Amino acid sequence: MDRTAESGTSTTTPEQAQHEQQQREQEVIASLPTGLFVGGDWVTTAATMPVEDPATGAELCQVADADPGEAGAALDAAADAQAEWAATAPRKRSEILAKAYDLLLADTERLALIMTLEMGKPLAESRGEVAYAAEFLRWFAEEAVRIDGGHMIAPAGGSRFLISKQPVGPSLLITPWNFPMAMGARKIAPAIAAGCTSVIKPAAETPLSTLALVDILVQAGLPAGVVNVVTTSDADGVMRPMILDPRSRKLSFTGSTKVGKLLLESCAQTVMRTSMELGGNAPFLVFDDADLDAAVAGAMAAKMRNIGQACTAANRILVQRPVAAEFADRLTAKLQELPMGRGTEDGVVVGPLITAAAVTKVTDLVADAVERGATVRTGGTPVDRPGHFYPATVLTGVPADAEMCHAEIFGPVAAITEFDTEEEGIAMANDTPYGLVSYAFTRDLARTIRVSEALEAGMVGINQGVVSNPAAPFGGIKESGLGREGGLVGIDEFLSIKYVGISV
Ligand code: NAP
Question: CA 188 to CA 145: how far, in whole Å?
């Protein structure tokens, strides 16, 4: 008799389980295309570049490393396909996106594992990002058939105005490593829906999720040339000629403000349309009337999502003095119990940061804050283990002149500062050149309205620590960017308005 079956226990040893996990990871990586995707074909390049697992530093695979010449073919393909794609029925474009939505969701486990392997976030978060990416496909499948226009009589009579929207044309899409699939889907989906062809360049650290996404769009029936992918270790050398090429009519960029400003200068040469989703420095305000349980839960979400590596991460946690000590105690208690490890391990919440340089940056920011008077409540020093790990950290009494109040921390460090009055809290919140998102926790309705109107940000979360939603217009003001992604206006970023005056 099979005693294992009888007792219900498993005979799998930890070594076997590890071996099976390694095999599964190798199979999943081997399932991916690794070339450039140009005009409907996967093509190899003379050079390749490694993709690494940030939890171990081990190489996962090699992908194409395009030089400017090899990459230029992708823009040729996008330009060649533009007219036919623009003429494709909106319903057809919508159906391809809807089919890709189904395929993506059905493939969640494989795609989540790919994302965790190349970027490090825990599997649960990667599954969430696959769902988030899929929602952009669904949202823009619905928007593709609702591109509308207008008609009016000229105020003086005698003429009619016909207002229509047309695809802006071949678009360049550049994405960061922190949300490697969702940021791609947030650009590719509206471009497809609007009738634009595109060339997408994912971040060098995380090309695999984009390759997997485009592979699925192809399975969903996307015609050749509509989306092209370029992977490269020479972002500037490859993208600059494409940006300066007059056939490119749009740049949609998500990344740092520093690179965004450089790209805007290049785009000025051809007066190219741009969408710029740039850096943030989100203030997270907790007023003395807040529900502290909700505020702590919100801070956990706003701080720990993506191991703190999000443009929307709570960068400065500003707490009104009467509740500051209790808030800090509760947040510290929650953060210090979060399991750290490789994102593939069960229950892990604190995965690795993306690179060794990221750990150094966070370490330096914490040291600077402590030197200026901040107190470490938990964490505060890098972990001695392979991979790029930094522990969940709480600092209190972070002074306004600490460097971390002005830079994006991009790590699991909660920086708490106290304030006294509502006016002071708002002034501190707005004391930044960034304006992506702000959060505020209060149970007072009048204060909710005052504060949300006064906060200088493109998005405000009231009593919630996450604002991202494909149905909402995502984007910032000030140095956080230009334009909006998602929501009812998201497709407009890829459409040009044409007015036709008709004499009657
Ligand atoms: P990054 O260094 O600005 O890179 C973003 C993308 O731009 C990458 O694909 C990068 O390629 C590429 N790039 C870099 N230099 C370039 C150049 N000269 N010409 C063309 N492309 C170039 O940013 P990151 O470190 O990947 O991402 C983190 C930043 O993104 C943070 O500032 C974060 O706040 C921001 N972000 C903003 C949003 C938003 O929606 N507002 C969302 C997510 C992230 P390589 O990888 O090859 O360098």
Answer: 16
pLDDT for position 11: 79
Residue appearing with tokens 């002149």: 401
The predicted model gives 388-413 an average pLDDT of 97
Any atom of ligand 1 within 6 Å of the Cβ of 427? no
By most ligand atoms within 8 Å of CB, the mutation choice from 118, 178, 312, 388 for ligand 1 is: 178
Q: What is the mean pLDDT of residues 255-262?
A: 98
- Does the beta carbon of 59 sit less than 6 angstroms from any atom of ligand 1? no
pLDDT tens sequence across 432-472: 999 999 999 999 999 999 999 999 999 999 999 999 999 99
Task: Report whether residue 203 contacts ligand 1, using a CB cutoff of 6 Å.
Answer: yes
Q: Ligand 1 atom 21: the closest Cα is on which residue?
A: 235
Give tens-digit pLDDT for 57-70: 999 999 999 999 99
Instruction: Compute the average pLDDT of residues 304-324.
Output: 98
pLDDT beyond 50 at 3? no
SS3 (DSSP) at 12: coil
**Ligand 1 centroid to 253 CA: how many Å?**
8
pLDDT above 90 covers a percentage of the chain that reads 96
Q: Is 152 exposed, middle or buried (0-12, 13-18, 19+ CB in 10 A)?
A: exposed
What are the strands of the beta sheet with 314-320, ordered from one edge?
Answer: 375-378, 393-396, 413-419, 314-320, 282-286, 437-441, 459-462
Q: Find the helix packing angle between 90-106 and 108-119, rounded to 10°.
A: 80
Instruction: Please check whether residue 479 is in contact with residue 433, taking contact to mean a CB–CB distance below 8 angstroms.
Output: yes
Q: How far apart are CA 278 and CA 321, in angstroms?
A: 32
CA torsion through residues 141, 143, 146, 151, sign: negative
Atom 41 in ligand 1: which residue has the minimum CA distance? 277
Q: Could you give the domains of the chain?
A: 24-278+482-499 (3.40.605.10), 282-469 (3.40.309.10)
Question: What is the atom index within ligand 1 of the atom nearest the CA of 174?
Answer: 9
In degrees to the nearest 10, what's the CA dihedral of 63, 68, 70, 71? 70
Pick the closest to residue 173 from 63, 262, 286, 249 (CA basis): 249
User: Does the pTM exceed 0.85?
Assistant: yes
Q: What is the mean pLDDT of residues 237-251?
A: 98
Q: 290 Cβ partners below 8 Å, 6+ apart? A: 323, 441, 442, 443, 463
Give residue 152 CA to ligand 1 midpoint distance, Å.
Answer: 42
Beta carbon of 236 within 6 Å of any ligand 1 atom: yes
Residue 244 near residue 270, CB atoms below 8 Å? yes
